[in-house]
Amino acid sequence: MYAYDTLDRTFVAQRTAQFREQVRRRLANELSEDEFKPLRLRNGLYLQLHAYMLRVAIPYGLVSADQLRALARIARRYDRGYGHFTTRQNIQFNWISLKDAPDILNDLAAVEMHAVQTSGNCIRNITTDQFAGVAADEIEDPRPWAEIIRQWSTNHPEFSFLPRKFKVAVTGSASDRSAMRVHDIGVRLVRGIDGAIGFEIWVGGGLGRTPMIAQLLRGFLPKEHLLGYLEAVLRVYNVEGRRDNLYKSRIKILVSTLGIERFRDLVEAEWTLTSGPGLRLETAGIARMQSHFRAPPYADMPGRSREFEAKRLEDSAFARWAKANLFPHKQPGYAAVTISLKPIGGVPGDLTAAQMDAVASLADAYSLGEIRVTHRQNLVLAHVPQDRLHDLWRALDALDLATPNLSRATDIIACPGMDYCGLATARSIPVAQRLSERLAALDEQYDLDQLSINISGCVNSCSHHHVGHIGILGLEKGGAESYQVTLGGSSAEDAAVGRIIGPGFGAEDVVDAVETILITYLGQREDSERFLDTVRRVGQDPFRRALYKQP
Amino acid sequence: MPRRVITANRLIDGVVVWRDAAGRWREEIDRAAASDDDKTVARLLSGARTDEAAGVVIGPYEVEVEVEQNTASRRFLPTHLRERIRAGGPTVALH
Ligand code: SF4
Which of A291, A320, A339 delimits the end of a domain? Predict the structure, then answer.
């Protein structure tokens, strides 16, 4: 893991001290809310429906056991004993007092964490593949590059007041587990024709009111030029992006208005100015950064654990969990374990302080003290010896954290919605809970895997509903909640925006509607075809007929 | 005109508060001052804005409510779901 150097420590300490003073001045009414709001947002502090909400940055979703324990302490001392993991791989606390915020930032700084740039029109938390560094299909570990981008973008004076927020995802694999193509910039490590590793740069993805899939900006960028090239993209956006209309201010609108060719010309022209030695990454510097993410000292083990195979045969509940929640590890004898934060009927992405402490201990005992947050609101223990999987599973089960549903019908992504969020037009969590309860039985009977259901409580699309295989958007219609359903979205390498199936459904009917969609799929699917492929093959008509009782 | 009460979030902790007839901010909506008279509501709101300027609360505004009155108690129920959730807390268990 990356460890702070003096520069990081000084910066975070300064920001924490500045914010303490800003809060003092606000509470003494020396600053008005209009003056203070941009300052608190720069430190991740929002005002939501019931209280302040603090969004803590988890750079590329990587958190140590000690850091998770610190988050548990914050949840216990300053909140109501739980936190919520988000699709940005961050954590949010829902019940924060303004007066406590400086102390919380202090506690975070003590474990090398902060809430800087988790809000505002700046470059936000860099996200990546939760299996970075352990995935067998990886070309190269993306985390050093995510960290390089994090350092460059932190407090970047030129990019602190962009037209709008800016999100970057980095992935090192051909299978995209980072939703790279729905980000403002997607960076993918690729092998060039001469065998050298560099980057593909994608631009202009984003969801919200106008969902768009990123387009390829550059097919191959030598590693040394990463920051120079990103700087050129950001400069073009900073100058050309619209500031007069909030809904047209993201880079996706600029790219689609100019067209990718014209946008590329502008970037390449700008790049001639930024590609000089100033921002060129040196081999030694890259190597130094990579040394922070070196593979841990794995034990030498056979590729298949006899212990694991035996337990799988003996214990069907364990076998079911192992089938759903394990990911192949590049190191023989190990597995990456996903801890589902989607218990049946639970709140997606929530974890109690007691569970945080327990997961931290399990990470220490089983996975080299490291935890990852996924953009699907789950956690990963990335380095578990297969011999020990059964013990780990039993411990997780005792914590109600062994739901065997990864990427299945009940692995629902949901934002806080109107139960917490000030911008919401409808609730998300109760819909997710009811769906989870209803679909659990259907999944058990018909094996509904490789299915993504995403629910957002407003057009801001924090749950990426446009790219859910089934997307649900909560709106308000005539004073009541109404849920618009889209089919056929994907956030993976086959990224696509889902299409609206028809008129929305009331809160009472939306669960039935999703069930009808899935039953229709079961009637249409060929062999073990996944839902998305069935929708792509048969189109929307069979679903529409079933939903709206059309002949 | 429908009945309205005045709400805001308290500056120090962000908690949802409702303005009572004596100009105090209460955490329970049922203690709020309600009126269907435009002038009275405007007066309540203007007092709330003074508190906003003094740094007591943030963003005061009017909320439409229905009144459930029986001999023992009087209860306010906001007509809009968002305000019902602000008044009563999240509709889901908090763990
Ligand atoms: S999608 Fe809307 S309701 Fe949900 S968290 Fe984002 S802003 Fe809030």
Answer: A291
